[in-house]
Prior knowledge:
Chain A is an all-alpha fold and 109 residues long.
Amino acid sequence: xxxxxxxxxxxxxxxxxxxxxxxxxxxxxxxxxxxxxxxxxxxxxxxxxxxxxxxxxxxxxxxxxxxxxxxxxxxxxxxxxxxxxxxxxxxxxxxxxxxxxxxxxxxxx
Amino acid sequence: xxxxxxxxxxxxxxxxxxxxxxxxxxxxxxxxxxxxxxxxxxxxxxxxxxxxxxxxxxxxxxxxxxxxxxxxxxxxxxxxxxxxxxxxxxxxxxxxxxxxxxxxxxxxxxxxxxxxxxxxxxxxxxxxxxxxxxxxxxxxxxxxxxxxxxxxxxxxxxxxxxxxxxxxxxxxxxxxxx
Lengths: 109, 178
C-alpha cells in the first residue's frame, strides 16, 4: 500500500485553485462566477486536509485533527456565503431581469 | 496484475479522482450553460470527497458530500432554474476585462509553479509511510474530530452557529419579495 506524496495533493489543489480563479475572473455569468468561487474554496480545503495528514507525522496524537476542524469551519463559511450570494443574485434578477456582470455597473466610477 | 493493483491501489485511485476533479473544474469554467457547469462542479466535489477519504479524513469527506454535494448544489440548481437564463446564446461568454483577467490568472499559475519548483518539501511530504496514525486505538475518525471540536474549538463552533443563523436570516430577507 503506497500512497501518493502530499506534494501531489498540493499540486492538484493549486491547479483547481488556478482554474477556479480563471473562471471567476474571466466569466460574465454571475452564477458561473459563484460556482468558480466555490471551486476555489474547495481546493483550499483539499490542501488543508493534505497538510493535516503531514502534521500527524510530526506531532502529538490529535495534531492532525486541527486541519479537519478548520475544514469544517471553511465548509460552514462556504455554505453561508453561497446562501447569501445566491439570495443576492435572486434579488438582482428580480430588479434587473439579468445577472450579466458587465451590465451591473451602477457603482462604477 | 492483481498484485500491481493491490500495491499501488491508493496511487491509482488518486490519479483517477484527481483527473475527475480537474475535468469537473474545467467543465465549470468552460461551459456556457451554468446548469452543465453545476453538474461539473458536483463531479469535482465528489472527487474531492474521495480524495479526502484517501487522505484519512473520513468525517470531513462525508460532511463534504452532505454539505457541498447535497446542500450547496441543490441551492445552486434551484437558483439556476429560478433565474432562467434565456438569450444565453446571443451573449458572449467572457466579461469585458477578460484579457486582463486572463493575464492575472496566468500570473497566478506562474507563482504556483515557481513555488513548487523552488520550495523544498520535507520528508513527510514525500514518503507517506512516515505518517503515524493520529487516532487512538478504538477511536473512530468522527469521534476524534468531535473530541477536538467540542473541547478546543468550542467557542469558534458557537460563533460559526451564530454566523450561519445570521447568514440564513440575511438570505431570507434578501430573497423575500419586496
